[in-house]
Amino acid sequence: MITKDILSEKLIIQQAVDNRDSEIRDLALKIHANPELGFKEYKAAEWITNTLEKAGFKVEKGVANIETAFVATWEGSSEGPTIAFIAEYDALPELGHGCGHNIIASSSVGAALAIKDAFPNFPGTIKVIGTPAEEGGGGKIIMCEHGVFDDLDAAMMCHPLRDSLAYLGGLAAVNTTFKFYGKESHAAFAPEDGISALDAVINSFNAINSLRQFFTDDVRIHGIITKGGDASNVVPAYCEAKFGIRASTRKRLELVKEKVYNAVRHSTAAVGAKCEIEEGLVYAERNDNLTMADLFKDNLESMGVQVKERPKQGGIASSDIGNVSQIVPTVQSYIKIGDAPNHTPEFTRDSGSERGMVGLNQAAKALAMTAYDLAVDPEILKNVKEEFENSKKVNN
Q1: What's the CA gap between 66 and 364, in Å, rounded?
Q2: Residue 2: predicted pLDDT
Q3: Which residues of 110-136 are buried (b: 16+ CB within 10 A; e: fewer)?
Q4: Contacts of 284 by beta carbon, 8 Å cutoff, 6+ apart
């Protein structure tokens, strides 16, 4: 039941975000104007931690042996839950902040600052956890392995999108590099002496494509050729391709990987070439906590934000927040900042636009209010934890 006291205190939180609006806008726009790739987000990490340190947060840098990872902590006046706002701040090659991580980072910072400003006696502990290299590097996976998220009661973040959603879910995924080795020769004078690494690549693409009709609807496989040879009159001795492989769960992903890897191995052997397979970190499927998602939705709607229903099919990507969600009750919600899809030049524009900054403000408010709900209502937190434990039993 929402009481007048809760309503009035949530209005105080919203005002606290507005009081910091100029500061968190400046942070978001500065990160947007200076895009940095995964594990190289030195400027962004410094700007974020400086902001938090100035506000009285205790900051530990270089956590999990990652230079650009951090944990910033502020403790309220009494024992209570430890709630983390997750910050991402890496950019995409060529596109810059085409996934809006500048807004993710700044909304988490804004939410944390607002809680501290509004409630010096907040019953709990607030953390901002800086997680580098979401775009392919799996920074959170490394941090999970180092126990960074183990002592949390809840974790949350808000991702910009073209719709506002309470949650969306995410596929398990892995990025794999295939390295093909053949034998160089003159393509016209002595082709019979060559073994084409490029033919091994092309055969592999065709073999993978032939498998698609036998995969379930949740499977996604997408690849690019990153090296296809150096000259058309030279039989390529070395070629390379990168693939992203996704499925609904890590268990299903293992089955898909086995089929894909076998297809590549046999396609390579068919032309006499050899292949090495380099597998990246495995991104877990996302276990969004629906109790927390409902809280976030209610808080967005209390500000007049329209929250759409999660699409029944499609529209799901992957993120290393999934690995966090296997350890602690977690939700990744979404805020509308424009009409373009992520990972496009148009979305890069949106993430630095006025509409993007409005979305940033709304996300920070909803995050802070959701953390407030968890801290002041033990019954809600109990429901969050029970849902999480039940989901682990089902998934195992």
Answers
A1: 26
A2: 52
A3: bbbbbbbbbbeebebbbbbbbbbbbbb
A4: 172, 250, 320, 322, 323, 325, 326
pLDDT in tens, 104-114: 999 999 999 99
pLDDT in tens, 57-66: 999 999 999 9
Tell me the one-letter amino acid at 326: Q
Which secondary structure element, helix H or strand E, spans residue 320, and what is its range?
none
Using DSSP's 3-state secondary structure scheme, residue 380 falls into helix
Q: How far apart are CA 84 and CA 82, in angstroms?
A: 7
Q: In this structure, what token pair is assigned to residue 326?
A: 């296997």
Give me Rg for the CA atoms of the chain: 23
The pLDDT score that the predictor gives to residue 79 is 85
Q: In what order do the strands lie in the sheet with 82-87?
A: 58-61, 70-75, 125-130, 82-87, 154-161, 330-336
Domains within the chain, CATH numbers bracketed: 4-170+286-395 (3.40.630.10), 172-281 (3.30.70.360)
Query: Residue 91: helix, strand or coil by DSSP?
Result: coil
Amino acid letter, 197: A
pLDDT of residue 316: 83
Q: 74 has which bridge partners? A: 126
What one-letter code names the amino acid at 27? L
Residues 132-160 have a mean pLDDT of: 97
Give residue 1's pLDDT: 44
Residue 314: band (very low, low, confident or very high) from pLDDT cuts 50, 70, 90: low
Contact predicate 48/102, CB 8 Å: no
